[in-house]
Design a protein that fits this description.
Elements: H1 3-29, H2 32-35, H3 42-54, H4 70-79, H5 87-105, H6 116-125, H7 140-152, H8 159-173, H9 178-193, H10 196-218, H11 230-247, H12 254-274, H13 282-300, H14 318-334, H15 337-354, H16 368-376, E1 381-385, E2 390-394
Antiparallel strand pairs: 1-2
Length: 400
């Protein structure tokens, strides 16, 4: 019997080390955000400014762009008590901590799909411009991975686990619109398993999703709509997911890029179906990746982008890339012989293709400390933030 606790402790230690490794990957690849922390987009212009103006805690459920942002607003509310100079660093540190928690969760022994440790590491290892890392405004793209993983996890069997799942569902569900995309998946889980706990999670997901609806329905739509270019859209999706994963920035024409995405999907669906007993949860995660691509495609209209434009909106392809790596890792871990060798070789090719862009270049220094002095004096000031040539208007901090 003594071997059981020691095995459990070893598994827990390994899980913790991998979570730390995922955090380290993010920190090393985008070290400038920790060495010289600065506000990124809505981190400063929305969450920081509104927390300063409204007191933070009264702002937790204020919607923006049609949905709620609980985690960023909670971080911003907490930061109102801090000295101005350390606020951007606090934001980055909190984002890094949440990233580590998601990496820990993806390795849960109750998740039946093998390769959760690969998914955890992929958070910091996938080819990416870095816009979802160490920013509270884009943290939702990381927490959504945990939300989708909650769909496939085995039913909780203790009160502590159930309470943790409900809390995780509420926090991640109120951060970004992904709970709306995950709702059909929770319904599928409840119908398939017919367990009381699955129905409780499904009902809870429905209530949380409904919290977004008033602001989502009130969101204004663009007046002019450019005609949809479906083939070019497929080419962009294939180029930015499968293409960047395995070929880096290699130039691909529209036909090849579109066929990459279509071909991979056409192959992976029957494989996951045939091996659904060994790869439980694989099909729901693939559905999550595809529905994210569809929803973000509707919002961002990547069919209006050029095929060579690899930096714009890279956050929209982050979740599909992590899930794709997870599925391939699960296949490799449950296969033998040539299949495993081929998949491992594909991983080596992916690493080699993207090695030149492993580190994210430092961002231009916006001299936050200079702005802090003016804000602390109570003076209105236009504060330069990231991305470059962006600004936020701070009215000046009132004496406290």
């Amino acid at each position: 019997m003594s071997g059981v606790p020691s095995a459990w402790a070893a598994a827990r230690t390994r899980r913790l080390l991998i979570a730390f490794a995922a955090v380290a990957l993010v920190a090393v690849r985008k070290s400038d955000s920790l060495l010289n922390p600065q506000f990124w987009a809505e981190d400063g212009a929305l969450f920081f400014i509104e927390a300063e103006g409204y007191g933070g805690w009264f702002d937790l459920f204020r919607a923006y762009e049609g949905y709620l942002h609980f985690i960023p607003r909670f971080i911003a509310a907490t930061a109102t008590a801090l000295p101005l100079e350390i606020v951007p660093g606090f934001y980055a540190g909190c984002a890094l901590a949440v990233t580590g928690m998601v990496a820990w969760w993806l390795q849960s022994p109750r998740i039946p799909l093998p390769g959760g440790w690969v998914a955890a590491l992929a958070i910091g290892a996938v080819p990416h411009t870095g816009e979802v890392w160490l920013t509270t405004s884009n943290l939702q793209w990381i927490t959504a991975l945990g939300l989708f993983a909650l769909v496939i996890v085995r039913d909780a069997d203790t009160a502590t686990s159930r309470g943790g799942e409900l809390g995780f569902l509420a926090i991640t569900g109120l951060t970004g619109p992904f709970i709306i995309l995950a709702l059909p998946m929770f319904l599928w889980r409840a119908i398939e398993r017919r367990s009381r706990w699955s129905w409780i999670l499904c009902a809870s997901a429905g209530i949380i999703a409904a919290c977004h609806l008033p602001s989502l329905l009130a969101r204004t739509q663009p007046a002019e709509v450019v005609p949809w270019a479906p083939w070019h859209h497929l080419a962009i999706a294939g180029r930015r997911t499968v293409g960047t994963l395995f070929f880096g920035h290699l130039e691909l024409n529209e036909m090849i890029a579109a066929l990459l995405g279509l071909g991979f999907t056409a192959i992976i669906i029957p494989v996951l179906w045939q091996q659904r007993a060994r790869l439980k949860g694989g099909l729901p995660l693939l559905f999550a990746a595809l529905v994210v691509l569809a929803a973000t495609g509707y919002k961002a209209r990547p069919d209006t982008w050029t095929l060579s434009e690899l930096g714009n909106g890279d956050r929209y392809f982050f979740i599909p890339k992590v899930i794709l790596l997870w599925l391939l890792a699960a296949l490799a871990l449950t296969s033998h012989g040539r299949v495993r060798i081929t998949l491992v070789a594909a991983g080596v090719v992916a690493l080699a293709a993207n090695a030149p862009r492993f580190f994210i270049p430092p961002a231009p220094d916006q001299h936050w400390s200079t702005s802090c002095e003016l804000i602390a004096r109570g003076q209105p000031v236009w504060v330069p933030i990231l991305p470059a040539d962006s600004y936020m208007l701070h009215p000046g901090r009132r004496p406290r």
